[in-house]
Amino acid sequence: MAGRNTSPTSIASTLSNITVPTNQPSEARSFHSASPPMSTPPTSLGDETSILSDTTKMDQMLQVQEEVSTPHVPPQAQPAPPSTPAVPSSESRRPARSSRKSVTTYNVQILAGTAIHTPTKYLQKHHGNVLHGPINSVRQKHTATPPKKRTPRLKRESVDSDDAAEAQLATEAAQAAQRRTSARFDLRKEVLRNSTVVGEPESSGRDTSQTTLRRSASDSRLGRSSQSRLPSPKRPRTSKDAELAGAADTEEEEDIKPKKKQWMNQGLYVGQDRDFDARLSESQNRAKKRASKKGEGTVLPLPMFAGERMLDAEVKTAFRNFRLPFDTYHPLPRKVKVDGWVKLHKNRFIGEASALWKRDKQDSSQCYCTPEDGCGEACHNRIMAYECDSTNCRLPADECGNRPFAQLKQRSKGNGYDYGVEVLETEDRGFGVRAMRTFEPHQIIVEYAGEIITQNECERRMKQVYKKDKCYYLMSFDNKMIIDATRGTIARFVNHSCEPNCEMIKWTVSGEPRMALFAGSRGIMTGDELTYDYNFDPFSSKNIQECRCGAKNCRGVLGPKPKKPPLQEEKPTTSLLAGAKRKFQEVFGSGKRSESAPNSPKKRKGVPYMANSALTKLQNAQAETTAVRQKAEQEAARAAAQKNDRKNRLMQRGASTVTITSRRSAVVRRGTRAYTPNLTSTRKTTVNLKRSAPPKPGALKSIKKSLLKRASASASAKRGIPPNPKREADTTPDRDMLPSDSEQVSASDADDDDDDDDDDSMAFPDSDDEYNDEQQEREQELAREFAAVKASAKKRGAGAAMGAMAAAAAAARGLQKTGAGVKKGFARFRR
Ligand SMILES: C[S@@+](CC[C@H](N)C(=O)[O-])C[C@H]1O[C@@H](n2cnc3c(N)ncnc32)[C@H](O)[C@@H]1O
């Protein structure tokens, strides 16, 4: 505290100190003491007057007073140099040391704990740029070394101060100030360097640096950085400077790294449907949108997506639950790596498969949709599962809604989220596939592509290539072909569910077979696992796999529940005829296909194929027979119901003879008479196709042909179309094929015959079907095949025959029905 006695007082220090007078009268002390009444170090660096003056303000005041009052008193001593102890000019003015001691001074900063009391040693060590120690030594140091530009104020303080302790305190204060301005310090340093770069002398001092700082304050950080990276040829560098500059440069370079702006390329609405036509490019879509916007009013647009949904007339799309898009809620999307999966993006025909496909490829499809239809639900191509293209559809691509594979191709050009599926690892079913976006009901999701192989090739692979494998990715595809997706698309990982959300459907695209996974009628939400019903046929009990789909109605096993006794009990003839009956019912419109949704595409569902090398052809045939038998039973039940219905109607009419239909009577009669447009025939003719002996191959065909033609003529007549004489002639049945009079039976006989329907009679529908040429052709084709199959059945024995017949039926229809008459089996055996 001794040092403080001589210190000047500033306003700041006055405010921050409380002085408690003790024994001395204040007046005396004010006027008779040379020492100031308040004695504190400068607390403000702005108080330069106080700091720089050798004498205190109070001393100066007293001196003036004394000069006025005692002009003759000569000064006894000149002010001593700072290094020597000051000689008091008057004893009376300088209070005794003891009296000065008696004045207690409190520093509020100290009391408040805000004063800085850092050990000097520490400061010297860690803050080299701050002055420490007795002022003299500091001064000496300063005169020896060139002034540092960073602490100009401090430098002056230290030069002018005599008191070591005061210097120490000043140092502390400066340090505090420095700490406060530390954030700005780097910037200043950099500005100084910049000024050097542009040729300004570094030693131009604080003013220059501040000017420069101000000037460059508005510079962008990046610009500054690039400037500072330039070499400064004018600047002579000492080794220390170079070191410092080097360090600074490295620091800067770290800072400088151009920060690349990160753009979010996926957002809240990813995967949500937007007004985007996948067949067009981005720019085409934009152009289309612009064009459509021209006519728009000025009303604010509806809320994106939600508005569209809310106004959607279809309840199922309007009230779909909202879920956050997958990339928003999914914590850590990670890519699952699957060993041994060779990706193929499109089908590849292997070996004879291509030739086989071309040879068997006979059918084609054509649609006549108008732009208003837009190839919607009624599109013929769509129903037949043919993709429209320029060869079979008149509409331009952007007006046609039946080009799913083209849409998929467009989507695959986008990003992963656009494509929309990824592999996931399930808990208990190996890998699976999950949606990364939403899919509309029946929208194409992913193609099941791989190598298309023949059955022979499949068997070879099973025996030789996949002998040791546990997993097979084989999908029955066409009558004689299999898709082996061991090398294939991601679709091979789609798992089975008894309550699936997707369907695997076969399509024909530009004349080529393609298979793809389509969303089910509920659509798919982001994050859902994709599943379809394998209808897995394990062929043998040892291959039965437990199903872990977790659905409420889970069947417990992959594939249909085994419920029927062994096949040996099957009566070959019964099966044959039941199968025949089924086929004809399908052709005549009462089959299962016509019962399914009329407007939905013909579903040629994909069935997993399990080609077990141990299976013989006979086993295949037996398996097919089971399926055929089940179907036949269903058909028989339906036929029985129809028969009962007919009986009831006859009973009600009280007819004595059997009338199959008046239409049919007319058809039969028309063959022998002139055509009468008005077909209100009163004569009732009975047609019984029951024969005591099975027809010769070809005979059945003829009967059917003539009957069908007659039916067609009848339908035309009903519509008022005049008869075609040529056709009329054609419709004349072969005499020997027509039922003879002797074959006309009474009602009771007919009833009896009806009872035998299931065995060997043809079941014709009662409805007034309208036959067109296409149907006729199909039916003829079917009849031909049927005859051939029947003949082969006789040769080969029942089991194999049933397989062949089922296959023929499937071929004739161009269908591959799930679980019926086709080979199947997906393949992953976990034995
Ligand atoms: C074509 S693979 C599907 C992908 C397969 N999970 C994988 O990891 O490669 C078919 C096999 O997956 C398994 N799997 C599929 N769905 C299943 C289900 N619902 N329950 C149990 N296993 C299933 C069976 O082992 C089946 O043989």
Automatic annotation (TrEMBL):
- Secretion signal: which residues? none
List UniProt keywords, sorted A-Z: Chromosome, Methyltransferase, Nucleus, S-adenosyl-L-methionine, Transferase
Which residues are in the AWS domain? 362-409
Pfam families, from UniProt?
Answer: AWS, SET
Record's compositionally biased regions (Polar residues): 1-27, 46-55, 206-215, 654-664, 675-689
- Where do Acidic residues bias regions lie? 749-774
Gene Ontology biological process: methylation
> Where is region (Disordered) located?
1-103, 131-177, 196-264, 587-607, 631-782
Identify a single GO molecular function assigned to this protein: histone methyltransferase activity
Domain named Post-SET is located at 543-559
Subcellular location(s): the record lists:
Chromosome; Nucleus
- The protein depicted here goes by the name SET domain-containing protein
Q: Which organism is it from?
A: Massariosphaeria phaeospora
